[in-house]
Structures are given as structure tokens and as C-alpha cells.
Amino acid sequence: MNIKIMVAAHKPYWMPEDSVYLPIHVGKEGKADIGYQGDNTGDNISKKNPNYCELTAIYWAWKNLDADYIGLVHYRRYFTKKEVRSVEGKRKQVLSSKDWESILKKMPVVVPGKRKYYVESNRSHYIHAHHAEGLEELERIIHEQYPEYVPAMEKVMNRTWAHMFNMFVMDKKHYDAYCEWMFAILAEIEKNVDISTYSAYEARIYGFVSELMLDIWLEKNQLAYVEQNVSFMEKQNWLKKGGKFLARKIGLCRA
Questions:
Q1: Mean pLDDT of all residues in the chain?
Q2: Averaged pLDDT for residues 46-68
Q3: Would you say residue 254 has pLDDT above 70?
Q4: Which of 3, 33, 179, 213 is most open to solvent, judged by the fewest CB atoms within 10 Å of its CB?
């Protein structure tokens, strides 16, 4: 079983030694070499990284990587066996090749555990957190060009949970199908939404929108998947995160 899970990074950082993981330098085009595979070889969209975020790695793998299963994690965020407190402990919980083989023999798709919002839907959360145009354009394109996806989209938008971070592992057949659908829609959004006045944060529009697209695609195609724990590999400032959440809820910020 040939499994390759990209670790998206933009700077040198701790990496698992297991060969299942492939560190990939996202937004590598025009940047100094940091010793990782660049997302700027072969057919690529590396230059679009400021707007597409980790999707430049997902695109690169779609066009250039040969494996039975392909996935993506982040240099500070991994699929793990369970949640523990210490950073060193979390590193030991990162799934190994054997762990992945065991999981993928049972299920073709792995996604993060649900991120629950409780008090708002995916649609309202997105609008409170970001400029609405990206989401509105996604909904328009699906209504006009992919009407068979409308029921799944409405279901996902009205949920109070989602599988976030653009993290997943899939067999190559499903990976290719998802990328074809997702990148076609993102190209349409790119044509129709003017982001010239967006902040650097909001300019990451395609990375934000695509986080909801994964669940729409899974729901429409009724694919079986397993949810796996995700650990953030650094200490988190929960007071700061909670403050940002409350600020979004009362409309004080968009970050």
C-alpha cells in the first residue's frame, strides 16, 4: 500500500521521520530552498499560494504525485491517535505508516474529527468570519453548474459542524475526482470575485471556501469516511481564541 501524506510547510520545522510523510514547501515559487519538496515543479499553482493556501500542495499532488492514497496535514497540525497535553507527547501520537495502513484498509477516506460551532451554522459562521462574496459565489456556481449538488450543499451549510483545515487522506480515485470538482469551481470563483481590496488574511479566500467544499462533496457522493483526532502541535492561547470567537459573533472583527 503506497501512502503519501504531504506535510504543508513554509519554513523549516519538526517533521515525522516516517516515510509515509512528505514535507512540501507550499508557495515555493520564488522562495529560498528549505530542503523540502516544492509545490512549484511540474504542473502547479505555487504562485497562487497567498490565495489558495495549502491547496497549492493538494493541486501539486493531484498533478504530480503517484500513490495509492494521498493526503495532507499541516506542519503544526497532524492526525493523531489521541489528544495529549505536551508537545513531545503529541509528536509520539502522530499516526505511523502501520496506523495508516490499518485505517485505510477499512475506509477509503479519512477526515478530521468534527469542528462544532453549536450556536451557528456553517453558513453563518463563514459570513461572520470572512467576506461573504466567496461563499455566495460558491453557492451560485453550484446552483447554476452543479445542481445535483444543491441538496448536499444546503445540508452542509445548515449544519453546526464541519470537517475543517483541508486535511484529509483518500484513495487516488477519490482524490482525483474531488480535486477535479473543487479546482474547477475555485477557478470560477477566482474569475468572478474581486479580492484586490482584501487584507492578506481575507485574500486566502479559496483556502477558506474549500474547507466547506469537502463536506459538500462527501455528502453528495455518499462516501464512507472515518473521523480521526487532530492535534495542534504547539501550545494554544485559548483566551485569545475565545476572544476572537466572541468578537466575530458581535461583529467587531473578521479575523
A1: 94
A2: 98
A3: no
A4: 33
Cell output for 29 = 515559487
Q: What is the pLDDT of residue 235?
A: 80
Output the nine-digit C-alpha cell for 228: 480521526
3-state secondary structure 192-244: HCCCCCCCCCHHHHHHHHHHHHHHHHHHHHCCCCEEECEEECCCCCHHHHHHH
What's the pTM value of the predicted model, to 2 decimals? 0.93
Taking residue 70's Cβ as centre, other Cβ atoms within 10 Å add up to 25
- Cα–Cα distances in angstroms (integers) from residue 57 to residues 30, 148, 164, 198, in the given order: 16, 28, 16, 23
Whether residue 130 lies inside any domain: the answer is yes
In which domain, by residue range, is 102 found?
Answer: 3-249
Residue with the three cell numbers 510547510: 9
Measured distance CA(114)–CA(58) in Å, rounded: 21
Place of cell 494521498: 70
Residue 155 domain flag? yes
Q: What is the CATH number of the domain that holds 150?
A: 3.90.550
